[in-house]
């Protein structure tokens, strides 16, 4: 289980991330809780933890600086606001982004089950795949989040091959920039791949699995090498 102090710590961290806004969504808060879960480590049940944190933000406040009691539904998303305030544009954009990441967990479960050839074990927010020789632990993210949370992902133990699977972006520039800044720091410590949840395939980005069979299952096995070359050629474009 978890201590009340941990719930309060999470609520305060979410409040800081919301940066003084007067509205948010259940989806945005859900995703922020998952990111806190990564940062904190050692917590056992994220579902129970989510219930406790959301109760403290939406129903029974532990701090009035982060309390959103007014509930509204729109376009399949559940919004919350401080009493008397409207849902702002930032809340809408963040809700859409968070919902994509939350939904991607289940789509990626199917994609990676086919990729690894074994059924996924759900340990939210992770997906676990146990093959004959290696165990893989997958976390679904996107470039901006991984950049903010990288130091916490790098702390994971070596019982698993740890993989952060990034969702695709509108352009390759966020990936090129990330590769330039962090690829050397990441190498040998974790793997970073790209999962396309629309076209349903996986590509390497930073690091390859130690199994040739899996390398051959990537849509474009040489992509990581191409990214490495690309940022060196186009360095001025992303500085």
CATH level-four homologous superfamily name of the largest domain:
af2093 domain
Question: Which strand order does the major sheet show?
Answer: 4-5-6-7-8-9
* Rg calc: 19 Å
Biggest sheet layout:
6 strands, mixed
Strand content: 15-25%
Report the CATH architecture of the largest domain.
3-Layer(aba) Sandwich
- The proportion of residues forming helix, as a percent range, comes to 40-55%
- Average pLDDT: 91
Q: Which structural class do the helices and strands define?
A: alpha+beta
Number of strands: 9
N-to-C CA distance: 45 Å
How many separate domains make up the residues? 2
Key features of this structure:
single chain; 239 residues; alpha+beta; af_2093 domain like fold; Rossmann fold; 2 domains; six-stranded mixed beta sheet; three-stranded antiparallel beta sheet; 9 helices; 9 strands; 48% helix; 20% strand; disordered C terminus
How would you sum up this structure, described in words?
The chain folds into two domains: 4-87, af_2093 domain like (af_2093 domain like fold, Orthogonal Bundle); 101-238, Rossmann fold, CATH 3.40.50. It is built from nine helices and nine strands. The protein has helices at residues 4-18, 26-40, 46-58, 89-116, 143-153, 173-186, 212-215, 223-233, 235-238, and strands spanning 23-25, 70-74, 77-81, 121-123, 126-130, 135-141, 161-167, 191-196, 201-206. It has a six-stranded mixed sheet. The chain has a three-stranded antiparallel sheet with strand order 1-3-2. The relative contact order is 0.10.
């Amino acid at each position: 289980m978890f201590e009340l102090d941990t719930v309060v710590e999470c609520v305060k961290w979410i409040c800081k991330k919301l940066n003084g806004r007067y509205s948010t969504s259940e989806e945005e808060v859900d995703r922020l809780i998952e990111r806190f879960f990564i940062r904190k480590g050692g917590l056992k049940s994220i579902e129970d933890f989510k219930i406790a944190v959301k109760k403290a933000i939406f129903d029974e406040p532990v701090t009035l600086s982060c309390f959103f009691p007014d509930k509204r539904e729109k376009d399949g998303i559940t919004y919350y606001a401080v009493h008397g305030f409207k849902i702002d544009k930032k809340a809408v954009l963040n809700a859409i982004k968070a919902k994509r990441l939350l939904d991607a967990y289940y789509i990626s479960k199917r994609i990676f089950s086919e990729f690894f050839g074994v059924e996924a074990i759900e340990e939210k927010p992770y997906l676990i795949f146990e093959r004959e020789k290696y165990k893989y632990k997958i976390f679904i993210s996107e470039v901006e989040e991984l950049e903010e949370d990288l130091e916490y992902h790098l702390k994971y133990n070596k019982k698993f091959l740890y993989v952060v699977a990034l969702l695709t972006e509108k352009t390759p520039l966020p990936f090129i920039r990330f590769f330039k800044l962090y690829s050397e720091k990441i190498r040998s410590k974790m793997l970073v791949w790209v999962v396309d949840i629309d076209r349903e395939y996986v590509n390497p980005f930073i690091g390859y699995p130690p199994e040739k069979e899996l390398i051959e299952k990537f849509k474009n096995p040489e992509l990581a090498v191409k990214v490495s070359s690309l940022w060196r050629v186009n360095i001025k474009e992303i500085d």
